[in-house]
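The record is kept unedited without comment:

——
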Amino acid sequence: MPQPTYLDPSAYQADGGPTGVLLIHGFTGAVAETRPMGEFLAERGMTVRCPLLPGHGTTAEDLIRIRWQAWVDEVESAYRDLQGRCDVVFAGGLSMGAVLALWLGAAHPEIAGLVVMAPGVKLQTRLLPLMPVVRRVLRYDPRGGVGDNDLGDPEGKARIWCYDETPLWGAGELYYLQRRVNRSLADIHQPILIVQGRRDAVVDARAPEFLYDAVSSADKEIVWLENSGHNLLVDGERQYVWQRSYAWMMERSGQRTEA
């Protein structure tokens, strides 16, 4: 998977009204995947933060020796920024970004709601728990980068900024993060919208139901996308995801939606 020069991997922010949203990209990805949704929400008056996680948006080498706590620190910082500017704050993310949004939800009950997309709480591979050991021997996954062959829209590949290689050090840190977040899911009480593509070849198909049952939220919903793969923020149904998420957040913040 290339890193096309026409896509901007760097952090994005927009200051708008009193409702804020934090959008977090996935593992080995970059803000190029969350920026379009962020721009959509900013155009409708929301205050938006799309942080770039440490070790991402540069070269795969930079993901080596990064600790999962650095990712948490980055999203905590972005959340505090929004909290200081907005009356209401939502958090959302894709894949590992969804896991980090769940971390925030468990740690900050005042967050108004969570939009978790292709949540990486359970993956199809059974090798993730082995990564803390395997990374001592191998630097990169011999299978290459995270695949994009599950996309429903073939043109979606042109909207992806992602590393061509998967550093196994980072995969080990993802496992540690996933394990800690899964243990804290019962601490999540706020409304949660779970969005999952039927074609996803990365996240276990049981993950949405697992998450739905594990959280303590009374207001929870699963939305299935019939023709989307793992990176549903670049796939053919992405605009539906943006609009559905916006309407969901506005309803829970007591505001009217804009077209």
